[in-house]
Amino acid sequence: MFGYDWPRFHAAVNDLPTALLLVTVLFDLGAWLTKRDSLKSAALWTLWAGVIGGWVAVLAGLQAEEAIEHGEAIHELMETHETLALTTMGIFTAVLAWKLFRRSKLTGAEEAGLRVLSLAGLVTIVWTAVLGGKLMFEHAAGIPNATMQREMENREAGHHHEAGEVEEHEHAEPADTAKRAGHTHPPGTPAHKH
Known about the structure:
By secondary structure, the chain is mainly α. It has a single domain, classed as Four Helix Bundle (Hemerythrin (Met), subunit A) (Up-down Bundle). It has seven helices and no strands. The radius of gyration is 23 Å and the shape is elongated.
């Protein structure tokens, strides 16, 4: 699949629909507050694109679940992530279907109900994303065991600078705390920064 396996494909396709569905809710709120038809149209088009892309991401995620090596902790998180993703897509699909079914004949009460439903979808999409991040960054989901073992061995070996490289670097706190965890220097190494 163009050099991607299912976990990588899922990672590649899940951000855009999330952004589109977020923007859908913002456009819809903006249309409601400003009474601008252009924002209402933009909300519908981004909803279309977000729903289509979201289902692609969900289907890729379902395939990725079967492809990755995992233990019980990842499995439990994946199940919750999956449930939330399906709930999110169900919400936004229902909103889109109702808007298409009713066309421009939506009553004020229907529009308000769909807006509340979209806000609920926004909450579930954020929760889904938080769990996806936790799967990746706290549990290394999708990273094969052999790759993770090589990386752990590499980190344990530490990092050494070549002669003359020390003058270019002063030791300082890295801006990214994730870098700090695996970067070590042997005792007596002069101070430097990256």
